[in-house]
Amino acid sequence: xxxxxxxxxxxxxxxxxxxxxxxxxxxxxxxxxxxxxxxxxxxxxxxxxxxxxxxxxxxxxxxxxxxxxxxxxxxxxxxxxxxxxxxxxxxxxxxxxxxxxxxxxxxxxxxxxxxxxxxxxxxxxxxxxxxxxxxxxxxxxxxxxxxxxxxxxxxxxxxxxxxxxxxxxxxxxxxxxxxxxxxxxxxxxxxxxxxxxxxxxxxxxxxxxxxxxxxxxxxxxxxxxxxxxxxxxxxxxxxxxxxxxxxxxxxxxxxxxxxxxxxxxxxxxxxxxxxxxxxxxxxxxxxxxxxxxxxxxxxxxxxxxxxxxxxxxxxxxxxxxxxxxxxxxxxxxxxxxxxxxxxxxxxxxxxxxxxxxxxxxxxxxxxxxxxxxxxxxxxxxxxxxxxxxxxxxxxxxxxxxxxxxxxxxxxxxxxxxxxxxxxxxxxxxx
Length: 430
What we know:
It is built from 15 helices and 16 strands. The chain is of the alpha+beta class. It has a domain at 5-122 and 265-424: 3-Layer(aba) Sandwich (Peroxisomal Thiolase, Chain A, domain 1). The strands form four sheets. Strands 1, 2, 3, 4, 5, 12, 13, 14, 15 and 16 form a ten-stranded mixed beta sheet that branches. A two-stranded antiparallel ribbon has the order 6-7. Helix 2 links the parallel strand 3 (51-55) and strand 4 (82-85). The chain is globular, with a radius of gyration of 22 Å.
């Protein structure tokens, strides 16, 4: 792991909110657009990549090993290998980590990595009764047997399994992700007012970032049917605390405080980055956005999965011999306002850090003015396969824009995990 690894550049699609029907672009469509744009901006041929690594949770039936599908469609050629990774909400970060480690150990020099998700196209599946009935019908050999099987059909067999809801539920504990956010809110006494205030700020920051053009690498989407998208469409510029306050709890309807308004949106989007070694940077005279210092992963209680970033960051700081105070900017993925606020309180809680992290003191306080300064997933959305790549790319540009030194991007992960990446601004130099 002695070879330095650099983020050269990246592109992402607009993040598009699910609006009740399948979106215009598949997960591979989204990733191909981002891949083509970033590769076209760099002075090497796409077939000179060593590999393509892509994170995705719910590719379609036509997108088996979606990384290979994207690689071929993006023009990387038959000789460039590709593989797909899946670590739930941090699949995009997992792809970056896989590329980072292969370059750091000298196995590869130039890798396209990131994530994609078309959550609006998450499939509806047959339930078990329908599957058994179809299997029986298929196995019936005689007309009498087939008619008998047909007579056994019941309308309830057509009740679909909604894979998106299944994917957002931790079946080991029987809780969906929103319910785990309620548990985090209860642990730290986070109020509905605090959640809504945070959500409002996310929308305001994204709106400002769009106006100031500080959301980096967003490239337009065009479909064969004439549909196009040029910017993230989930931000609600006209929302207010009053409007947010009128929304009913969604996950715990009787006692809860987590609403659709203070949660991340269900969204389609892709984000891809080019990672390079020192050798590749020198060979092709590549630009440099940031250096990847290290990546860390940690597990925590699935019932409080939203606190995963605290565990991952603690591990990352230990691995890199850094302190919380060394970090200039933060991207903490906004799965839920309650989860972000819970992480901030846990970082600064001696009790939590001692009991769950084995530390003798609190990690420290994160300045809200240095956190998600261009807004986050509450306003932008959280296409689970892509978010880890998006926040890494945005953080790299924030460090460069503000001439800051270090930044951490981190996510909670369904199932009770956290992932975190430490980036260093090298002033554009390798």
